Amino acid sequence: MQAVILVGGEGTRLRPLTSTVPKPVMPLVDRPFMAYMLEWLRGHGVEDVVFSMGYLSTAVRNVLGDGEAYGLRLRYVEEPEPRGTAGALKFAESLLDERFFMLNGDVLTDMDLTAQLAQHEATGARGTLALVPVDDPSQYGLVRLEDDNAVREFVEKPSSDQIDTNLISAGAYILERGVVDLIAPDQNVSIEREIWPQLVGGGLYGFAHPGAYWLDIGTPERYLQGTFDIIEGAVKTEVTERLGSDYVAIADGVTPEGRVVPPAVVERGCSVAAGAQVGSLVVLGDGVSIGADARIERSVVMQGAEIGESCVLRDCVVAAGVKIGARTQVTGGAVLGEGVTVGADNILTRGVRVFPHVEIPDGAIRF
Ligand code: GDD
Ligand code: MG
């Protein structure tokens, strides 16, 4: 089976993390985000993957390569300019099989695609959308169904008065090649706003996955949530095996002087000084150093970052190569981009986003 994965979005809601690394290959726990998706697809019989790309596409290609490492054939198609979710599919048309999966490239999930495929065949559908329940459908595509699972209506980003179901499109579709004929060539076309409404009543079905794990990782809050869910084992991934029954992975050769509280991942070359506490719900990338008496909780600290003594990091994401001076507090959903330098005695909180390579002097910011 073939899969087409859309990875052309700019990932604006994940800036400044996606200012330097495209969303599909952003590190998530210990591997590029896309590795989880590829592992999941392979488990449902996918052998051939076509990436439809735009923004920072060379980086995606460099990280994922030809797919040998994942046991898959990976190919890449690059749009000359953003074509939208349907235009991107149209652009890949010459590589498409008669039937294929189409996926948004930013979902972490263990949905049973095999069961969805069985319904697709049984109904003779032209398209079958994976559906999941969410608390707030307003940021997604809302789907109303008939009793036989045919789609009655599709409403992208519904306003509050349009919300009468919690079922949304999970960004995983099974499509017959003929659907691609509905898309005008060489134009920006939205599959959600232009193609699904056209297909309603003409062979568009939904398949609900009520018990599945599903998360769109497209915002910093959800990126952190995905990290926690992986290291707590709420979603089954290869990382679950690595963490074992005590939910801690400390790389060989690392001997923390401070405490590591599970669930936590501490990668190669890290140092955790005396009196520091790392965890729970923390990932430290390769070569991160944590100063004496620092406290790191519910956070991701990427490769090579240096955290000074007595710092407090809670509910934050710190990108690669960041340097933070002593006693600085980074909390409340703050996101520090690659190579940021923060001096001593600062407080960064309330979802503040600091863009790559910015330098903040000692004692410059407080709330
Ligand atoms: N190649 C290409 N070109 N890819 C694109 C383009 C484009 O112009 N625009 C968006 N994409 C990719 C993004 O990279 C992402 O993987 C996917 O298409 C969906 O775009 P998002 O920007 O993440 O959309 P969303 O999250 O607001 O909404 C979509 O996903 C929801 C589920 O997470 C919609 O499909 C909703 O209906 C759905 O509920
Ligand atoms: Mg998304």
UniProtKB/TrEMBL annotation:
PANTHER family: SUGAR-1-PHOSPHATE GUANYL TRANSFERASE. It is an enzyme of class 2 (transferase). Residues 261-360 form the Mannose-1-phosphate guanyltransferase C-terminal domain. GO terms for molecular function: UTP:glucose-1-phosphate uridylyltransferase activity. Keywords: Nucleotidyltransferase, Transferase. Belongs to the transferase hexapeptide repeat family. Residues 3-228 form the Nucleotidyl transferase domain. This is UTP--glucose-1-phosphate uridylyltransferase. CDD domains: NTP_transferase. It comes from uncultured Solirubrobacteraceae bacterium. The keyword Transferase applies. Its EC number is 2.7.7.9.
